[in-house]
């Protein structure tokens, strides 16, 4: 560790660059960063989603370059498929895409950790862009991605994060204290100045397990690289990695622990999007992220009713789902693979609104519903207790569902 590198890293960068031997690895690395772009960690199994994402980016007129970061084993067929998807289509522009293998930069024996959530850290670290929109392959934007760089919170801080669903799930107090104890205090030897407001979110006030959703992360890496490295370390350190679910909240915790409180969270927590069930409720496998004025910015979880291939198991496990499909396996399979329709969304009442000063048993109005099948990824939101139903305009619905159609068109 005294070399300045994590054990997982060889000290080589995937991209060729001129290096000054008298300077540190990280100084050379940071000086080589340039430009803005979209970064996606990719595996062969995600190429289907990434292909559909490229179609949407074409439709939106995206002009940002895109880098697909992979472990070095991306099949030639996958590369060809993505290159074809990036080509010019009627009324759109071709996407500028590139592929980066991290294999030259990873110490032998560590390649296997470039899996699942973990690939996002390496995508964030090894892209060549200075300013990035880090995006999941199954995320779908409804606005031109370059507009994320124009968000006021990003321009002020250099990092823009989106809030997760406000769920009833909580950590133990000693788990929260574990992370709190790593955050530099005022007057520490390095004279870090942590904004006290960043210690007032639901994680610290209510022990909430889910604060950030990382399907889209907007960041200036030049000013936030140290925090990224701390986040990576937290993911692989057993003591911290076992507490958190995936990479999500380690993005902002890594920044705080590094002494950097310059980041901004979106005004609204994640919403349930789709079609209302009655007047108060909405259930979906997707979560939507809204702008300050409640326009849909992006979703995570694809634009399918269910992205999980669990229809057959669910057919036998859930009688209500089976009956809803007329006891037909074919209809069940078709229902799972059908496109969603976006007409409304629900922003549930916030955890502070529902719980007040009580943090002993925190409850939220956004909860998982296993009876919906789909591998347990369906969540139901209610607008009671001061929540809000956002009804999109006809023009908005036309735009959103046009993108749903493009994403779901046959490949």
Summarize the structure.
Pathway: Protein modification; protein glycosylation. This protein is of the alpha+beta class and 411 residues long.
Overview of this structure, please?
There is one protein chain. The protein is α+β, with helices and mostly antiparallel strands and about 400 residues long. It has two domains: about 25-265, Alpha-Beta Complex (Spore Coat Polysaccharide Biosynthesis Protein SpsA, Chain A); about 270-410, no CATH class. It contains 15 helices and 16 strands. The chain has helices at about 25-30, 45-60, 75-85, 120-125, 150-155, 175-180, 200-205, 220-235, 240, 250-255, 310-315, 320-325, 330-335, 350-355, 395-410, and strands spanning about 35-40, 65-70, 95-100, 130-135, 140, 160-165, 210-220, 265, 270-275, 280-285, 285-290, 295-300, 345, 365-370, 380, 390. Helix 2 (about 45-60) crosses helix 15 (about 395-410) and helix 8 (about 220-235) packs across helix 10. The longest helix has 16 residues, at about 220-235. The termini are far apart. Residues about 15-20 have low confidence and may be disordered.
């Amino acid at each position: 560790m005294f070399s300045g590198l994590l054990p997982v890293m060889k000290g080589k960068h995937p991209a060729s660059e001129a290096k000054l031997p008298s300077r540190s690895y990280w100084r050379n690395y940071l000086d080589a960063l340039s430009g803005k772009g979209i970064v996606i960690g990719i595996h062969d199994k995600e190429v289907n989603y990434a292909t559909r994402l490229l179609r949407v980016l074409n439709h939106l007129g995206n002009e940002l370059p895109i880098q697909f970061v992979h472990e070095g084993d991306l099949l030639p067929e996958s590369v060809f498929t993505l290159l074809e998807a990036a080509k010019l289509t009627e009324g759109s522009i071709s996407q500028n895409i590139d592929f980066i293998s991290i294999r030259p930069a990873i110490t032998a024996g560590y390649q296997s950790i470039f899996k699942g959530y973990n690939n996002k850290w390496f995508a964030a670290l090894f892209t060549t862009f200075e300013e990035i929109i880090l995006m999941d392959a199954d995320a779908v934007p409804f606005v031109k991605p370059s507009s994320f760089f124009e968000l006021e919170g990003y321009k002020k801080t250099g990092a823009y994060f989106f809030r997760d669903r406000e769920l009833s799930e909580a950590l133990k107090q000693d788990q929260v204290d574990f992370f709190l104890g790593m955050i530099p205090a005022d007057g520490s030897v390095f004279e870090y100045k942590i904004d006290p407001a960043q210690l007032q979110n639901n994680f610290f006030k209510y022990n909430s397990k889910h604060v950030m959703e990382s399907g889209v992360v907007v960041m200036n890496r030049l000013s936030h690289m140290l925090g990224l490295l701390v986040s990576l370390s937290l993911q692989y350190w057993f003591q911290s990695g076992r507490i958190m679910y995936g990479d999500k909240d380690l993005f902002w915790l890594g920044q705080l622990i590094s002494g950097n409180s310059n980041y901004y969270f979106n005004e609204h927590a994640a919403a349930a999007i789709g079609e209302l069930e009655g007047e108060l409720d909405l259930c979906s496998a997707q979560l939507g992220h809204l702008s300050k004025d409640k326009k849909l910015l992006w979703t995570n979880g694809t634009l399918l009713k269910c992205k999980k291939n669990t229809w057959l198991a669910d057919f036998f496990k859930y009688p209500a789902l089976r009956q809803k499909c007329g006891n037909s396996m074919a209809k069940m399979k078709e229902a799972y693979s059908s496109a969603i329709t976006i007409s409304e969304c629900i922003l549930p009442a916030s955890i502070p609104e529902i719980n007040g000063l009580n943090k002993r048993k925190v409850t939220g109005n956004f909860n998982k519903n296993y009876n919906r099948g789909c591998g347990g990824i369906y969540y139901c939101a209610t607008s009671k207790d001061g929540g809000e139903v956002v009804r999109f305009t006809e023009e908005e619905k036309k735009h959103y569902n046009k993108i749903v159609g493009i994403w779901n068109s046959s490949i």
